[in-house]
Write a structure and sequence with these properties.
Length: 263
């Protein structure tokens, strides 16, 4: 009898120990935009965050530029390189690279400094420069190297090309198939290039306060890294019912065996 009790005790301790070290990820850990003040569904909170892309053009950037005459709508440049854009490579080859001095070498105008200008400011400057040579000229200018790299606990990590003027961190994460169940929403890092190197900022996308963060809107060439929870190495995202049943079944089998063996 003592032998039978020790077996039961052993099985009980094994099951308790197993689930002490392999627990489920709490649902609250995976929620986004959490805020105690928003517990009431009728509550409305406004977060101030200016929607404007203030990215300043830097050496190494690539600008897609198309200039045309507003009267006859013909390209100002003969043999305009923007006519046949069928791929990312074609867009890159059709763009103008900002050199180390912050200038682009554009036909008719020659070198034009665009460093530290926004895309809109660079567009206006190009129109003014071209106006010296061709009247009634309009310019379309876009940043052709708006890329984001998204790594870590997301469904589809990788490099993404952005074809819009601005994108929020939540939109970027959705591009990568959203975060996994093991994502540490309180520790999402953004690596941003600066004039002196790079900076790393840690964001809590699980909090509604992210909407007011100056890093809510990403900039070209940002790297987003979603850290994993520590529980990932031994945890479950959902309750392991099949595992529980297997352990219980094994325990019953062992107890039955010893009971028959004792007889």
């Amino acid at each position: 009898m003592k032998h039978s009790i020790s077996i039961k005790t052993f099985l009980l301790l094994a099951i308790v120990g197993y689930f002490s070290f392999t627990s489920c990820v709490p649902q609250k850990k995976m929620l986004l935009l959490k805020n105690m003040e928003m517990a009431n569904e009728t509550t409305s909170i406004e977060y101030q965050n200016e929607r404007s892309l203030e990215y300043k053009i830097k050496p190494g950037d690539n600008l897609f530029i198309r200039a045309f005459n507003m009267i006859d709508e013909k390209n100002v440049l003969s043999g305009d390189r923007s006519n046949y854009l069928t791929s990312d490579a074609a867009i890159y080859l059709s763009s103008y690279t900002v050199n180390k001095d912050g200038c682009i070498d554009f036909p008719l105008t020659g070198l034009v400094e665009v460093k530290n200008l926004t895309v809109e400011q660079a567009k206006k400057k190009m129109e003014n420069e071209l106006a010296k040579y061709v009247k009634e000229t309009a310019v379309m200018l876009k940043l052709s190297n708006f890329d984001l790299t998204i790594l870590g606990e997301v469904s589809r990590p990788g490099k993404y090309k952005i074809y819009q003027s601005e994108i929020s961190i939540l939109e970027a994460l959705s591009l990568a198939g959203n975060m996994s169940n093991f994502a540490k929403t309180s520790s999402v890092k953004v690596v941003r290039r600066t004039d002196n190197g790079s900076e790393i900022v840690t964001l809590d996308v699980g909090s509604a306060d992210i909407l007011a963060s100056p890093y809510y809107y990403l900039k070209p060439n940002d790297i987003v890294y979603v850290e994993p929870m520590k529980i990932k190495q031994w945890g479950f995202t959902t309750f392991p019912y099949s595992t529980v049943m297997s352990i219980v079944s094994l325990g019953v089998t062992v107890l039955t065996y010893f009971a028959l063996y004792k007889k």
